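From the methods appendix. Each design record in this collection lists the tokenized structure first, followed by the designed amino acid sequence. Records were kept in a plain field format so they could be parsed without special tools. The example shown here is representative of the layout used throughout.

RECORD:
FOLD TOKENS (65 positions):
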């Protein structure tokens, strides 16, 4: 018998790290696109938050409403 923890979850996308968007970030800074840098930061934080929610639901850490 195995538990859900032992089974790989292929439906979960990988973490989004700064090094994944670093080139884009530097280009936006170079062209003084401050609003776009803010949007990029928002997208990364939203992605991180949704991964955390998905992880919590998968492990049953929080009761579903």
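DESIGN:
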């Amino acid at each position: 018998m195995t538990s859900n923890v032992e089974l790989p979850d292929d439906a979960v996308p990988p973490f989004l790290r700064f090094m994944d968007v670093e080139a884009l970030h530097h280009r936006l800074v170079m062209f003084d696109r401050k609003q776009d840098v803010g949007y990029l930061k928002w997208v990364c934080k939203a992605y991180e938050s949704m991964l955390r929610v998905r992880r919590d639901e998968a492990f049953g850490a929080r009761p579903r409403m």
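APPENDIX NOTE: The CA atoms of residues 6 and 59 lie 12 Å apart.
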